[in-house]
Design goal:
The complex is a heterodimer of chains A (284) and B (268).
Chain A: H1 2-35, H2 51-58, H3 62-93, H4 97-109, H5 113-124, H6 129-138, H7 149-173, H8 177-185, H9 190-201, H10 203-218, H11 222-227, H12 235-243, H13 249-273, H14 276-280
Helix pairs in contact in A: 1-13, 2-13, 3-7, 3-10, 7-10, 8-9, 10-13, 12-13
Chain B: H1 5-33, H2 50-57, H3 59-92, H4 98-110, H5 113-126, H6 133-157, H7 161-169, H8 174-203, H9 218-227, H10 233-264
Classes of the chains: A mainly alpha (284), B mainly alpha (268).
Main location (chain A): membrane
Domain ABC transmembrane type-1 (chain A): 65-270
GO biological process, one term (chain A): transmembrane transport
Chain lengths: 284, 268
């Protein structure tokens, strides 16, 4: 039985492994190879050098890396604070409304990200849904709320809310009610229960949610383009520019490698610490 | 300690506010799509459905629609099949590299999609494939088939392996077990994975951005028009794509109960 299990497992994994090998790992190898090619070449038959990386350092691309990571971090922290009460309510307080909220949030994910961000542009711009109506009713308007750093963070918070909410709710659902009840019976204050019961026991959910939102937000591009209107340039934007306007594939690849290295190391460290079987509900 | 009634009400209000927050931008797009003027400004003075007539009559929109449908359709079928077997390897069988496999599947989901699209573009270039909507299918699959796998895996976790063992003891072959037990039991998961796959592919633009070559999908066209060369058709086409997903979802949610009703009525 066990031998059969092993054979079937490997057999079933084959299609997915082939797919990911050919369309995920192989392209990454190509990016890595291009990143050590000399400037502005479009094939891989050249003497490798590291001029693209030198360029990355010399041109001061670290500022866009810092912007991307900084904004992603702020968005992740804000999302955690916003989502904690909501996730708590989904796991422990709401009854039927949990289903309504789950369906409502999932459905919003199916609407293309750019349409939703465009909706925020229409809502927040000068003469938009908010400002236009304020001016029509009260006679005084204000300049649009777009094209600055806070609105980019707002966009990140908006787009990645589901990616924090669901893992958190899953994590909180793993806290046994008995443990909280026992702590209260022994005279623990609310704050103490939060610090010593809720947060540690919901940690897997917190880690997954934080990791997902941070990593996705760090690689995001549409928020800073549509809402931020190039108020700051993020690293993913630099990568795109190097490929399109710059027509400099090696530079774009080197920038992409920087982004991949940062996101990849965070993701791999995070993913290796979580037990997927426990989170996804293995019964055996 | 049970929450008081006030906390309950407060949390309920918070939940409703969150939903409103998630859908507010769509309301703005909806209003914009029925504004008559070419240059949009709120409050809208004259309402008109002219842009819808224009969008529906437009050849560009028809081509975009066709390409988006083809891409999403193929992505759905392939990711259902790959995801089905992937989920068995993910959740059901104990094999040597299961832990590694589980983690490998998560990586594409974490990966920035625009960069993934660019990496694929370079890869296609390196092996001399000209990008078209076919290559966009590949790009979507990299991201969507792991998600399909996870959705089916949730179902596969609650699956009782003794059923398969019993069938094997009774003399069933592996293929028979697959057909008679595994597929029927996992079917609900496979169907919802297919639904997710279609809708995610239908709405995705970062992956299509660099991989469609001369072709273009609906979300990609919308993005291009938003970033440069605004067209008054943008809100209208946006609402139409949303309406497309909503219609599909409605069918998917209602279909099971219709099938059940039809089965219950005695066949004459």
């Amino acid at each position: 039985m066990e031998r059969l299990d092993r054979r079937l497992g490997a057999l079933c994994a084959t299609p997915m492994l082939l797919l990911l090998g050919l369309t995920f790992l192989a392209p990454l190898v190509v990016v890595a190879a291009f990143s050590i090619m000399p400037e502005k070449v479009f094939d891989l038959w050249h003497q490798p050098d590291f001029s693209a990386y030198v360029e990355v350092i010399r041109q001061g691309y670290w500022t866009s890396v810092a912007w991307a990571l900084g904004m992603a971090l702020v968005a992740t922290v804000i999302l955690f604070l916003i989502c904690w009460p909501l996730a708590y309510a989904m796991a422990k307080v709401y009854r039927r409304f949990t289903l309504v909220l789950t369906i409502g949030v999932v459905l919003s994910l199916f609407v293309s990200e750019n349409i939703r961000l465009f909706g925020w542009v229409l809502t927040l711009m000068k003469g938009g849904l908010i400002e236009g109506h304020l001016r029509a009713w009260f006679g005084t308007g204000f300049d649009g709320l777009l094209y600055n750093v806070p609105v980019i963070i707002f966009g990140l918070v908006y787009v990645y809310l589901p990616f924090m909410l669901f893992p958190l709710a899953q994590g909180i659902a793993m806290i046994p009610d008995d443990a909280r009840q026992a702590a209260y019976d022994l005279g623990a204050s609310r704050r103490r229960v939060l610090w010593e019961i809720d947060l540690p026991l919901a940690a897997p959910g917190i880690v997954v949610g934080g990791l997902l939102t941070f990593v996705l937000a760090a690689g995001a591009i549409a928020e800073s383009k549509l809402l931020g209107g190039q108020a700051v340039i993020v690293i993913a934007d630099d990568v795109e520019t190097a490929f399109t306007y710059g027509q400099n594939w090696p530079l774009g690849s080197a920038l992409a490698m920087v982004l991949i290295a940062i996101i990849g190391s965070i993701a791999i460290v995070g993913v290796s610490r979580i037990d997927l079987d426990a989170i996804m509900g293995r019964r055996r | 300690m049970n929450p008081t009634r006030l906390t309950r009400a407060g949390l309920l209000a918070y939940g409703i506010l969150t939903l409103a927050f998630l859908y507010l931008p769509l309301v703005a797009v909806g209003f914009a799509s029925v504004s008559k003027s070419r240059y949009l400004s709120f409050p809208i003075r004259r309402y008109d459905t002219g842009w819808y007539a224009e969008a529906l009559a437009s050849d560009t929109v028809r081509d975009l629609l066709l390409i988006s449908l083809k891409v999403a359709g193929i992505v759905t079928v392939v990711s259902m099949v790959v995801g089905f077997f992937g989920a068995l390897a993910f959740a059901r069988y104990h094999w040597r590299f299961r832990g590694l496999f589980q983690k490998l599947i998560l990586l594409p989901i974490f990966f920035p999609q625009t960069v993934l699209g660019l990496a694929l573009l370079m890869w296609f270039n390196a092996v001399d494939i000209v990008p078209s909507w076919h290559t966009a299918v590949v790009a979507h699959l990299v991201w969507i088939s792991p998600i399909a796998t996870l959705i089916i895996a949730i179902r596969a976790y609650s699956f009782d392996p003794t059923l398969e063992e019993a069938a094997r003891d009774m003399g069933c072959s592996t293929l028979q077990i697959l057909r008679e037990i595994t597929i029927p039991l996992l079917m609900p998961g496979v169907v919802s994975a297919g639904l997710f796959a279609f809708l995610l592919s239908w709405g995705n633009f970062p992956l299509s951005l660099f991989t469609t070559g001369a072709d273009s999908t609906l979300p990609e066209w919308l993005y291009a028009k938003m970033v440069s060369g605004y067209s008054p058709l943008v809100p209208t086409v946006g609402i139409l794509t949303v309406a497309g997903s909503a219609a599909l979802l409605a069918v998917a949610l209602i279909a099971p109960s219709i099938v059940r009703m039809w089965r219950r009525t005695p066949q004459a």
